[in-house]
Every structure is written in C-alpha cells, then in structure tokens.
Amino acid sequence: MRKLGCLGLILVLAAIVGLFVLVQDWGGRGPAPRNMTFTVPEGASVASTAERLEQAGAIPSASRFRLLAKVFGAGTPIKAGEYRIPAHLSQADILKMLQGGKTLQRFVTIPEGLPSVMVRDRLMAAQGLTGQVDVPIEGTVLPDSYSFQRGDSRQSVLDRMQRAMLKYLAKAWENRKPGIAVTTPREALILASIVEKETGKADERRTVAAVYSNRLKRGMMLQADPTIIYPITKGRPLGRRILRSEVQAVNAYNTYAMVGLPAGPICNPGRASIDAVLDPAPSSALYFVADGTGGHVFADTLEQHNANVQKWYAIRHARGER
C-alpha cells in the first residue's frame, strides 16, 4: 500500500510538473528572433495557421500549438487579416492576437492642399493596396490619414476619402456664418482650395479667406497666383516663376483674367480652410503679399499694398533673389 501511495504521489507530481511545463511553453518567450508580419487568409483554420506560424518561426511546433490552443484557447475562432507579431511573442499572446483580430493597420496620408493627381500617386504607391484607381475629381478628397489592411482595393480607400469630404462639407455648410461671399457648398470648396494654396499658416487662414471674400463681394478679380498654375500642371509644383504670358492667359481658372471664382477647386482643401471660408475673419483687407517670414502682410487699400510690395521686393533683393 505504501508503494502504491508513493507511486500515486509521484504521478501527481509528474502531472503537476508536466502542466507547469505546458503552461511555461504556452505563455513563455516565443522563438521569433525579430518582428514579423503574418497574414491569416480568409477561412483559415487554427491547424493550417499553426503550420504556417511554425514555418515562419513564430512558434516551435504546430502540433503542440494546436494542442495547447484547445486546452487554453477558449474555443474562440481566429480572424483573417495581416498581423504584426513582435519578436519572441508567446504562443498564448499570438493566439490571443489572432482571436482578437488586432490586425496591422497601414495608412495612406493625404496632406492638406494636395491636388488630385498626387492623391492618385499616393494611392498607387501605397504597398498592400490592390487594383487601379483613376484621378479623382479635384476637391472631392478630404485630407487626412486613412487606415487600410493588406488586400484592400485602392478604390475602396478613395471612396472613404470622398465620403469623408462630402460629410464634412455638408456639416460645415450647415454651420456657416451669415453674410459670407459664397452661396453654395461647391463655391465654398472652390474658395477653400485657393485659401489652402495661398497660406500654410493657421493664424492667418481666416484673414486670407476674408480678403478673397471681400473681393468677391466687390466684384473684383481674385488675382490668386495658384489659379494660374493649376491649368498648367493640374496642381503639381510649377518649379519656376510664373511667366507673364501665363498671367495673361484666358481660361476657366486664371483669376487674373476673370472676375469671380474659377471653374472648380485647384486642390483638395483641408477642414481648416473650409471652415475659414465659411467663417472669415472680420477684416476689410483687400490685398496681401509675402512678408519674408513665411506669412503675409495685409492691406485695405492699393496704396498700402503697393508699399508692402516694395518692402517684399527689397527683401528679395537682399536675399539675392530676382
């Protein structure tokens, strides 16, 4: 009897030790030497995924992973997607990640003022997206960072960008201030695209919007340089100074040769520029010119403006610029 008792004790101890080893194996340091990305295809099973995890070096044994997943995994199915597995992540945490669907998020960023030809460039360059996409209509994309997963289509991401613009513009239009110069959301979008291109300084955006709003109300030409460039490059950088012939060119965008707004947006404006057009600063300014610091100096009269222009020319001359 004593021998049987000792044998029973030994078996219990062995079971405890075995369980301890299993728990340590399951929750201990994994074999992956470095961070890796791992994709679970749609409809993949734990068994097939375990084989691929072993091949990738993320787990020591597919068969042991399947066994331990049954014991400790609570029976929750794994989810398809692309995952970022950190170096030496435990088998327990790998399964938890796959069950929780915490997939790797990729992003494509559209800065404020990016023209649509360059929006397409960014979408086409984004690794992990699939399919082709046409150049979107100018002004229909809301600048922001958009997440996607490997295998998403470029068109699906573009659709989200355009839905975001429609939603934001509609909400902003509802909150517009009375007496503004634009009469439709599209006009607001067009003017916002000009404001976006004219200044990158947040503290003067509403004043720039006020200048153009005041000009529209008075029936003055907007005379916005970016509108000259747009028909030439479709919004890409010109890379040189504007030619006199281009200033004088008559087309649907050149606001030096027409009164009122151009035919359409000249870029994809951001939220702040849209807001500025719908709530411009309380200013009577009609002119502005660069001040040499990255900002602008504003003027109510042509006489004041001409004096400011001369100061700007003096700054350029001192810098050795023509």
Describe the structure.
- The protein has a two-stranded antiparallel ribbon with strand order 1-2. Strands 3-4 form a two-stranded antiparallel ribbon. Strands 5-6 form a two-stranded antiparallel ribbon.
- The protein has helices spanning 2-27, 46-56, 62-72, 91-100, 116-125, 154-174, 185-198, 205-218, 225-233, 244-248, 271-278, 302-318, and strands at 36-40, 81-85, 106-109, 145-148, 287-290, 296-299.
- The radius of gyration is 31 Å and the shape is elongated.
- Strand 5 (287-290) and strand 6 form a beta hairpin.
- It contains 12 helices and 6 strands.
- By secondary structure, it is mainly alpha-helical.
In short:
This protein has 322 residues and is mostly helical.
Index terms:
322 residues; mainly alpha; two-stranded antiparallel sheet; two-stranded antiparallel ribbon; 12 helices; 6 strands; 48% helix
Low-pLDDT sequence parts: none
Give the helix/strand class. mainly alpha
* Rg computed from alpha carbons, rounded to a whole number of angstroms: 31 Å
% residues in beta strands: 5-15%
Mean pLDDT: 89
Strands of the widest sheet, in order across it, are 1-2
Shape: elongated
Please trace the helix and strand order, writing H or E for each element.
HEHHEHEHEHHHHHHEEH
Helicity range: 40-55%
Give me the count of strands: 6
How many H/I helical runs? 12
Task: Report how far apart the termini are.
Answer: 107 Å
The biggest sheet amounts to: 2 strands, antiparallel
